Amino acid sequence: MIEILTTREQKLLLRCEETIKDGLEKFYAVGMALMTIRDQKLYRADYSSFEEYCQERWDMRRRHADRLIAAKSVVDQLTTSALLPSTESQVRPLLKLPDHKRLEAWERAVASAGNGRVTAKLVEAAARETPLISKPRSFGEPLNFRGLRHAPINEQGVVFLFGMVSKELGFVVESVHNPFPDCIAKRLFDARRRLWREVRIEFEYKSRHFLAHGHQDTDCDLIVCWENNWPDCPIEVMALKDAIRKLPSSVGEDVENRQRQVEKSRKRH
């Protein structure tokens, strides 16, 4: 059944079709435009199906339209890569892989290209070389601290753990981001007067990684890490391995401790 589009839908359809007109070499934008038209059924005013719309409006087979839409979705999974695909043919080999393996294969292709162009053949070869079975995961020592079963083994684990206990350690986090430093927070430095001070925090798994990452000549107030292996560090270091020993291992334990204190107080009175 042919339906009339609203004014908003007509404007959205026009924008999408202008994108497609610009050229199919801009596959990501075209894939996004086609996906919008398909998902919101913006074709319904003149066509009975998305397949008919693609064929009649763009002389495009439905299969190719679906490939462009899928390619757009794959690129969304590669956003952490320093280099992104520039053509749909580069992406096509990645569609054969599970979602969690696509970034690995793409990075392999980029590395194999060196300073040259990443071709579809390179991506195809990288996809074939990417193992579908993931390697067994590694775990830190048993920790059982609240919701964390094992100790951190990397910087991401340190960030997660700090987020769990930052408030108890006297911090209010303002932002966590990629540019140095990793975190901007405020720290309670005068409890009596309730005064807070800005703190620039860099997260590391071990404190000496700060040097390996080339941060020694940059402004940083505090290194938050799991283990402090830099005794002479000129910057303040907070090793979470030591800091959490002063905290209850579970929220329930914290509640129980407070209840015991209340009971003791009652008995004294």
What distinguishing features does this structure have?
two-stranded antiparallel ribbon; 11 helices; 44% helix
Describe the structure.
This protein is of the alpha/beta class and 269 residues long. It has 11 helices and 7 strands. It has helices at residues 7-21, 27-39, 50-58, 62-76, 88-91, 99-113, 120-129, 155-165, 209-212, 240-243, 251-268; strands spanning 142-145, 148-150, 171-176, 183-190, 195-203, 222-225, 236-239. It has a 5-stranded mixed β-sheet. Strands 1-2 form a two-stranded antiparallel sheet. β4 and β5 form a beta hairpin. α1 (7-21) runs antiparallel to α2, α2 (27-39) crosses α4 (62-76) and α6 (99-113) crosses α7. The termini are far apart.
Q: Output the helix-strand order.
A: HHHHHHHEEHEEEHEEHH
Mean pLDDT: 87
Major sheet: 5 strands, mixed
Helix content: 40-55%
The dominant shape is elongated
What Rg, in angstroms, do the CA atoms define? 27 Å
- The DSSP helix count reads 11
Work out the strand percent.
5-15%
- Give the strand order, joined by hyphens, for the main sheet: 3-4-5-6-7
Distance between the terminal alpha carbons, to the nearest Å?
81 Å
Unreliably modeled segments: none
**Structural class estimated from helices and strands:** alpha/beta
Number of strands: 7
